[in-house]
Prior knowledge:
The chain is mainly alpha-helical. It has helices at residues 2-6, 9-32, 39-61, 66-95, 108-114, 117-126, 129-132, 143-165; strands at 137-138, 141-142. It is built from eight helices and two strands, in the order αααααααββα. Strands 1-2 form a two-stranded antiparallel sheet. Helix 4 packs antiparallel against helix 8 (143-165).
Amino acid sequence: MLNKILTSRTGYFMGFFASFGLVALALVIQTQYKLEPCPLCISQRIVFMGLGLLFLIAAIHNPQKRTWVKFYSLLQMLTALGGAVVAIRHWWLQVHKDEMLVDCGVGFDYMFDNFPLKKAFMLVFRGTGDCAAIDWTFVGLSIPQLALMAFLMLAAYAFLIAKKRI
């Protein structure tokens, strides 16, 4: 049964729904607990959405040739690993919050409205005091730790789909 799912469009659609489901979950947590997402939280959501779109495109295309299957798998894994890097950076900022000089930073919208694109991205990935705060946990894990696990699982899932389809 699992082989049938992974070798059909359904496998890619499941990746799409998982990715966007995680973004929806983040929005629920944000509104339920009245949290303000930091720039790195928003960046991780953007990566989840990009990954979801890659799964959706693959589902629509439904590749049968090895080349296409490998291509989609590579894009999906690289995107997921890129998201993992952002989550690791976010987690690192949380671990080292006592060493940070900045208590609070400007918001994501302000950065992109008032700085050139390159400078805004540099500020986002440098992180702010907002990024170091741990406002919510689940089973003792912070949001970037949970996001890191999700990115790694989605990368493994993309690899598994490719392995079953080739």
